[in-house]
C-alpha cells in the first residue's frame, strides 16, 4: 500500500513541485537568506501559509499578524484532522502528531479518494505514509531548487497555480453525487464573492457555505443510491 500511494501521488507531485519551486524563489526574493528560507521550508511545511507570510515578513508586519494570517489559511487542517480521527484515532499521540505535521492537501485528497468509507481498515496507515512521503519529498526538493535558483526563475511565471490545478483535478474526480457538485460550486462562488476579505478568510467562507449547502440539501433532497441487480449466470 505504501508503494501504491507513491504511484498515485506521482501526477499530483508535479503540481506540488511547481508550487514548492515558486515558494523557494519567493522566499529568497523577499530578502531571506538561503539558510533561513530552507529552514522555513522544513519547519513550516505549509505552502499557502508560507506564500502569504512571506510578503508580511518582508514588509515588517508584527509577528501576531503573520501568525494570525498563517493560522487562518490553515484552518482547513482542523477539518482534515477531525476526519483523520476516524482512521487513526487509535494510534499513539506522538505518531498522530507526526502524521498531522506531514498532512498535505494532495495527500489528504488521495487518501480520501482511496478510503471514502470513514472507517478503520487494513492498509490505511502505510498508504497514508506513502502519500505523505511523496508529497513531502516533492515539496522539499522543489523548494530547495527554488532557493538555489532564485536568481534564474522569475516569480511572475506563476508556476504555483499548477499545484492548484492538480488538486482541482483530483477534487472533481471525488465528487460523486449531485449534492457534492452543488456544494462544490457554492464553495467556489462564495470564495470568489468573499475574495476581498482579509487574511484569506474567503477560504473559510467557501468552506462554511459548502458545509451549510450540503447539510440543507441532504435534509431536503436526500440522494438515493440505486443498486443494479447482478445478471444471472448465462445472461
- Could you estimate the helical fraction of the residues in percent? over 70%
The shape is: globular
Query: Could you say which structural class the secondary elements and strand pairing correspond to?
Result: mainly alpha
Largest sheet: none
Query: Mean pLDDT score, rounded?
Result: 79
Distance between the termini: 36 Å
Number of H/I helices: 11
Regions with pLDDT < 50 over 5+ consecutive residues? 224-235
**What pattern of helices and strands is seen along the backbone?**
HHHHHHHHHHH
Estimate what percentage of residues fall within beta strands: under 5%
How does this model look, in words?
The chain is mostly helical and 235 residues long. The chain has helices spanning 2-29, 34-44, 47-58, 63-73, 76-88, 93-102, 105-114, 124-148, 161-174, 178-193, 201-220. The relative contact order is 0.16. The model is unreliable at 224-235 (pLDDT under 50).
Amino acid at each position: 500500500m505504501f508503494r501504491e500511494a507513491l504511484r498515485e501521488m506521482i501526477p499530483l507531485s508535479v503540481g506540488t513541485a511547481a508550487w514548492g519551486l515558486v515558494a523557494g524563489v519567493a522566499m529568497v526574493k523577499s530578502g531571506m537568506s538561503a539558510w533561513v528560507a530552507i529552514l522555513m521550508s522544513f519547519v513550516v511545511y505549509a505552502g499557502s501559509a508560507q506564500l502569504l507570510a512571506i510578503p508580511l515578513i518582508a514588509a515588517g508586519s508584527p509577528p501576531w499578524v503573520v501568525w494570525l494570517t498563517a493560522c487562518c489559511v490553515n484552518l482547513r487542517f482542523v477539518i482534515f484532522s477531525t476526519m483523520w480521527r476516524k482512521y487513526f484515532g487509535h494510534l499513539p499521540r506522538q505518531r498522530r502528531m507526526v502524521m498531522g505535521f506531514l498532512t498535505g492537501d494532495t495527500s489528504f485528497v488521495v487518501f480520501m479518494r482511496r478510503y471514502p468509507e470513514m472507517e478503520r481498515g487494513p492498509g490505511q496507515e502505510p498508504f497514508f505514509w506513502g502519500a505523505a512521503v511523496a508529497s513531502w519529498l516533492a515539496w522539499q526538493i522543489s523548494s530547495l531548487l527554488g532557493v538555489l535558483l532564485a536568481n534564474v526563475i522569475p516569480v511572475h511565471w506563476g508556476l504555483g497555480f499548477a499545484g492548484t490545478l492538480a488538486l482541482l483535478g483530483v477534487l472533481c474526480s471525488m465528487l460523486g453525487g449531485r449534492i457534492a457538485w452543488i456544494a462544490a460550486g457554492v464553495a467556489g462562488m462564495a470564495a470568489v464573492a468573499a475574495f476581498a476579505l482579509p487574511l484569506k478568510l474567503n477560504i473559510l467562507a467557501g468552506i462554511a457555505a459548502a458545509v451549510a449547502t450540503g447539510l440543507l440539501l441532504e435534509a431536503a433532497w436526500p440522494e438515493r443510491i440505486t443498486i443494479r441487480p447482478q445478471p444471472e449466470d448465462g445472461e
